[in-house]
Amino acid sequence: MKILAIESSSNVASVAIMDEEKVIAEYTTDFKLTHSQTLLPMTEEIIRRTGTDKKSIDCIAISKGPGSFTGLRIGSATAKGLALAWDIPIAAVPTVEAMAMNFSFTQCYVVPIMDARRDQVYTGIYDMKGLYPVEIMKQSAMSVNELIEKINSYGKDIILLGDGTDRFADIIKEGVLANVILAPSHKNRQKASLVGALGIKMFKEGDIESSDEHKPEYLRLSQAERELKEKQSNDNIQTND
Q1: Which of 20, 98, 172, 199 is deepest in the core (most CB within 10 A)?
Q2: Average pLDDT over all residues of the chain
Q3: pLDDT at 195
């Protein structure tokens, strides 16, 4: 089978075409252009450069979240549009789980962290002794102190990766009792090929959905939604007074 994979949950924009044997092509950038400027051109370019017949693509794998609200919406819209146009299903891959795929076949627990702002991270904890992640703690939003407590409760050495390391690595290393290994730069971020690898597995297991069914997984309200909720709460208090 052949799959088109898309990753847009953070500043990283990444597109890959791959099958069960190899990554045919991958295009990854990590700079300040918005995903609305990059994803579709990257997709068109990678298809053109590889001479891929769109009819040969069996599924689209998309990083479903958590992550940047804007990035997830753009990635989701791109995947839904292509899946609808090509009449193929979507494999909605958990973002943090795909990040853990950077480190298969390790004895350490793998802990991806994405900076979720407001002193929180999007994270999960995975056993990566094999090829695919085994979930120890499902992906969720939490404070760094909560994460440190979770890691210490397992008593395992960890590999830490993701853009959250830029801000929180020192705090985590100081608070975690076990050994903390920081991922090198070439294994420290999201990549479409990781999403694609899990997408192929999900497709073969029948864990897919239609374009109409797909939606991102944000894990928490957006800033605009939180501000609206706070405003409504304040209005209710004033009304009651």
Answers
A1: 199
A2: 92
A3: 98
Q: Give backbone dihedrals phi and psi of 125, rounded to 5 degrees, phi first.
A: -130, 130
Which residues partner with 17 through β-bridges?
4, 25
The CATH number, out of the four listed (3.40.50.300, 3.30.420.40, 3.40.50.150, 3.40.190.10), of the domain defined by the range 2-94+190-224: 3.30.420.40
Between 36 and 206, the higher pLDDT residue: 206
Tokens, residue 153: 């409760």
What's the pLDDT at 227? 45
Greater model confidence, 161 or 32: 161
- Tens-place pLDDT, residues 44-72: 999 999 999 999 999 999 999 999 999 99
The Cα 125–Cα 167 span in angstroms is: 19
Listed by start position, the domains of the chain span: 2-94+190-224, 97-187
Same fold, 2-94+190-224 and 97-187: yes
CATH assignment of 97-187?
3.30.420.40
152 contacts 177 by C-beta, under 8 angstroms: yes
The token pair that represents 232 in the structure block:
């409504």
Helix (H/G/I), strand (E/B), else coil: 232: helix
**Tokens standing for residue 104:** 């298969």
